[in-house]
Each structure stands twice: as structure tokens, then as C-alpha cells.
Amino acid sequence: MLFKKKTDFKVDSRLSHIAFIMDGNGRWAKKRGLPRKVGHKFGAEAFENTVKNCHKLGIKTVTVYAFSTENWSRPKDEIDAIIGLMEKYIEEAKKYEDIKIVFLGDKSVLPITLQNSIIELENRTSHYDNTLNIAFNYGGRAEIVNACNELIKEGKSSVTEEDINNHLYTKASPDPDLIVRTANEFRLSNFLLWQCAYAEFYISTALWPDFDMKELQKAIKSFYERKRRFGGIIDK
Ligand code: IPE
Ligand code: IPE
Ligand code: MG
Question: What is the 11 CA–ligand 1 centroid distance (Å)?
């Protein structure tokens, strides 16, 4: 990490991919006596700002967990609000197009208008280098099952790790270097189960709508203090 001023640094190749478990929108709203969907609205703003901040710091790949396969168990009005915010984001994304946007998850059960706008956005941005992966109707287990079924369809009788990698929703991205989860929760909640094999974890006590550049820099600073061994030995 190259520090110039405190607020002015760029990451290096050790940190090419950060993934965020954006948690705590509901608690943020509850603390203020507001409906949960208001928390998601402010969470969507934190998401847009964080993507821009990562871009400023030189992070090439950003992944966000926006809606899990288990989140369908929430009340319908909350789900509708989240879907509405995603539709709005896709509309907004047209303005500052400079990033490849890829949706991770099963699109086929989403409203058809959302499916169409996702496909259009993915196609339109596919030539950019920096990537934003949006995990929406995403589950890590479902992703691995989907990869296995695709391999079976291709007629494979045995598979390698590379085969599985190449059939995950994340096939175009490197594994995440750092997973950041907000709202002080220490679990994966079915996020990137395969890809997290050697990821570093950072837990922030901030609720997602409060996650800002300062919090992001704290996470990055912590990452650079880690010794990643990948099963080997560093100090021989
Ligand atoms: C994260 O915030 C957003 C989604 C899961 C869609 P939550 O809605 O889970 O917020 P809490 O955990 O209830 O505070
Ligand atoms: C994980 O958060 C999913 C997203 C951030 C989209 P949850 O709030 O759904 O996770 P749990 O239920 O606390 O494990
Ligand atoms: Mg939560």
C-alpha cells in the first residue's frame, strides 16, 4: 500500500479484490425508529459510495453481497423495496459507466424487467477492466451445485478444482483477498464459500449505511498488517 497523505493512497497487487457483506441496514433503521426499507435505501447509498471509494484506491475487483438466496424469507414489502433499489441502481449506473458489472446468482427467478435490465447492463459494460460483482439472489452452496450440474451436462465424469472455478458465477474474477463484513457479525452467511479458501476477514462494527471511506481505510490497513501464508512458511 502506497501512503502519500493519510487520505491519499493506492493499494498494490496484494489487494486486487475486496468483497463486502453489507450487513446492518435493518438495525440502522431500527435505531432511528424507521422502517427497515429506509435502512436499505441508505445502505444503497453506502454501496454506491463504497464502489467509488474502492475505485479511487485502485482496487480492481469489488464484490458486494446484496441479496442472498435465504433473504426470500423476509417480508414481501422488504423484498420489494430491495428489488426496487436494485432497479434504481441499474438506472443510475448508466451515468458513471466505467466498470464491468456482473451479477452473481440465479437471475431466472427475478422479475423479468429486472432480468432484462441486468442482462443489458452486463452486456453494455463487459469491455471495462475494473469489475463490480453484485451478488443478488446469490448463495454459495447453490453456486457450487450449479457448477456441478453444468459440468454433468458437459458430460464430465470427474472434475478438477479448475473445472469448478470455471463454472462458478465468479469465473471471471480472482479469489477475494479481503472479505469485509459490517454490523459486527462474524459469519459468512453462505457467501463465496468456495472462493474464500484463503481470504482475509475484517469485521467492522459500523452498520452498513455508516460504512464510509474512513471505515474502508481501516479495513485495508488491517489487511496490510496480515501475514498471508497460503499454507506455507514466510519466515524460514
Ligand atoms: C443487510 O442488512 C442487507 C440485506 C441482507 C439485504 P440487513 O437487512 O440484514 O440488516 P440487519 O442485519 O437486519 O440489521
Ligand atoms: C447476509 O446478511 C446477506 C446479505 C448481506 C445480502 P443476512 O443479514 O441475511 O445474514 P444473517 O441472516 O444475519 O446470517
Ligand atoms: Mg443482516
Answer: 29
